What we know:
Transmembrane segments: 89-107
Structural class: mainly alpha
Strand content: under 5%
Helix content: over 70%
Low-confidence stretches: 1-37
Keywords: Membrane, Transmembrane, Transmembrane helix
Amino acid sequence: MIGMSSLRSELTGNHTLIETCTLRVDNYRSTTKTTTTLAETTTTPTGMTTTLAEMTTTLAETTTTLAETTTTLAENAAATKAYDMTLPMAVFCSTAGLVVLFFILTFRPKLRRLNLENDQRRAAQGASKNLLSTNRMEEKSLEQEMLDLSQLKKQKRQEFLNSTT
Length: 165
């Protein structure tokens, strides 16, 4: 890189300064527009030094812009990669949704029928339990009546035996 003090010492004319600046611009891989701006500078050495300082700033900004562009390209590649995954994910999710919807529509009537059958079975079991408990109560009451009748029969027999003797 050529510093400002060495540039002043090499000043022999406008032509040499423009060649040196062009070499410097080519080292930074800057645009043609920057080179054209250097060629259009004034012929006074003071004006040229100011322009060179400005151009150095422009080259630094250009280098920064290239770095930012590289970052942007990397970000775009990452975004493209992420976008490449969105289409398969969307297809997968929509297919899974359709499969779930198919199963719901297919098996829902069957599930309703099964639930109805289960409800009917539970009602029948409840009714049979009620009937069993009713039968047991009747059975107990019949046993009690039979006990009462057997006791009454024994009592009547005893009375009959007592009355005959």
